[in-house]
Structures are given as structure tokens and as C-alpha cells.
Amino acid sequence: MSRIGKKAVTIPSGVTVTLKEGQIAVKGPKGELKRQIPDLVTVKVEKAQVMVERGGDEPATRARHGLVRALVQNMVDGVTKGFERKLEINGVGYKAEVAGDKLNMTLGFAHPINYQLPKGVTAKVEKNVVTLTSSDRELLGQTAAKVRSFRPPEPYKGKGVKYIEETIKRKVGKTGAA
Fold this sequence. Notes:
Shape: elongated
Number of strands: 13
């Protein structure tokens, strides 16, 4: 039995969870999130808790049991507290700015990068740090990975876009002719 799947997800005050036709919807102060529930597991709302139960003991069912519980927990956390991801831009002349719902970046290419932020994700830039915030953890991670992919950090000088907690393993460059 999945240890994570057995735990109940507590619903804080101000958050409503509704189930209908294989879909769970969580609504709170930071927004509303919806997700399809796989056929192999069932979700029940009892009092101020959400319980995830599985129908059988097949590997596919067991795999989804803990997954669905973790996804429901992330949905509840997202609509109450929200999530944030920070990216650091390193390099001479590398910069970013937010214009409405677009993230405009100059990353050493011959052209600027104008990235349209997905609906539900907001950005804020302070010096060389881009802070992305959203109530949907999955969408936030995909957006952060997309922004990082425009100019991944290189190992010689560390130039590029990296997660703030990421460490770059630096390489020694050429030493010249001896």
C-alpha cells in the first residue's frame, strides 16, 4: 500500500473541493484548478478531508494511487499559498523585463526573446532574478523549464539562465600552448 496514497489531504478553510464525472475541482483564494482523475483510483471528499483509494493491487493502480494524492495536495496548496520559481540570469548584457503578460529577454542572441507567459503564470524581475508565480505547480515548472531552455547555463563562464538553487559544475578552459 502506498504510504503517500493512504494519507488524507486536509482541506483548509476557504477552499472548496468538488467532484463530478471523473474530475476534481479545487477552488480557493488564489484561483481554481481542475484535473481529470484516472479510472483506476477513486477520490472521496469526507468532512474536511480528501481521501484517495485504489480499486486493485495491479502495478498501474498502485502507481497512480500515490500520484493522484500528491496531485490533489499540490492543487490544495496552490490555491491557498501558491508556488514560485526563481531563475537567475548571468552574463554581460543579459537582461529581462516584464511587459504585460510577456517576458522580454536579451540573452546574447542577435534578436530579443519575447516569451508569452501562459495564462495563470505571472513574472516579476528584480535585477537579474526572474520570479515566476502560479497556483498550478505543473504549469509553473513547465514555464520555468521553457525560460531556462532559451539559454541554458554553460560550464565555462556560467553564462545563461539557471534556477536560483542550481549549481553549475564549472570546467577549466584551455591553458594555452606550453
